[in-house]
Design a protein that fits this description.
Elements (H helix, E strand, L loop, with lengths): L18 H14 L11 H5 L5 E5 L5 H9 L4 E6 L2 H13 L5 E5 L2 H7 L6 E7 L19 H7 L1 E11 L2 H12 L4 E3 L15 H8 L5 E7 L1
Parallel strand pairs: 1-2, 1-4, 2-3, 4-5
Antiparallel strand pairs: 5-7, 6-7
Helix pairs in contact: 1-4
Length: about 220
């Protein structure tokens, strides 16, 4: 496993954008985007207007679970970090349709955002739902859950904050369980894998995985 945080955890895919998604990026982006500023730590109170717990999500896809969680937890602030523009456009559309006001989006590489923008020990939670498993062994160095990178992610969690990881790939789930279990500053809230958290909505991707007979593997760790 690699500790090099410069190795990208994603590949940009040229997904087709609808006209509505393009329009959302142009018209709504300025309202909800947080620009990437490599030399400026985020001020959450200024961002959300008051001192509130802040939860980040890395790679929200089409954002189906993202806006629902934010809508149902208005007392918290949410930061969605994503590189794929079609999903960002769709999430912006859903945010406006459902009047979600406590969610902001950073359109940038999450590793650089964590390194350069997020203050240490500042997040109340971190969501990592269905990250790319990079199944080939030679590509494991690109995984989001890997040595070196996990330490960076954990360093941005406040004491008592949680890290919630979900995958439909058993091998990746076991890999992540073992790595998180030996990561300093983390403790597992469960004996091994966590039960499904009722507050996390099922997405179309997850429904398809379950329909194909794949199990879902969940982890819930806490910053000590």
């Amino acid at each position: 496993m690699s500790g090099d945080t410069s190795i990208r955890t994603y590949v940009l895919r040229t997904g087709r954008m609808t006209e509505a998604q393009k329009r959302a990026l142009e018209e709504l982006g300025p309202r909800y985007f947080v620009p990437f500023k490599p030399d400026a730590r985020l001020d959450y109170q200024a961002l959300f207007g008051d001192p509130r717990p802040v939860v980040a999500e890395i790679g929200f896809g089409m954002g189906q679970a993202t806006w629902r969680i934010a809508l149902e937890n208005p007392e918290a602030g949410y930061l969605g970090i994503e590189v794929h523009t079609p999903g960002i456009g769709k999430l912006l559309m859903d945010m406006v349709e459902h009047d979600v006001r406590n969610l902001r989006i950073i359109h940038h590489d999450a590793v650089e955002v964590f390194e350069r923008m997020l203050p240490p020990a500042s997040l109340s939670g971190l969501h990592i739902f269905y990250p790319d498993p990079w199944p080939k062994k030679k590509h494991h160095k690109r995984r989001l859950i890997r040595e070196g990178l996990v330490e960076l992610l954990v360093s941005r969690l406040a004491p008592g904050a949680y890290l919630y990881f979900v995958t439909d790939i058993e091998e990746y789930g076991q890999w992540s369980l073992e790595l998180l279990a030996r990561t300093a500053g983390l403790r597992n809230r469960h004996e091994a894998f966590a039960p499904h958290q009722d507050w996390r909505p099922e997405t179309k991707f997850e429904a398809r995985a379950l329909g194909d007979g794949r199990a879902v593997w969940e982890l819930m760790f806490e910053k000590t």
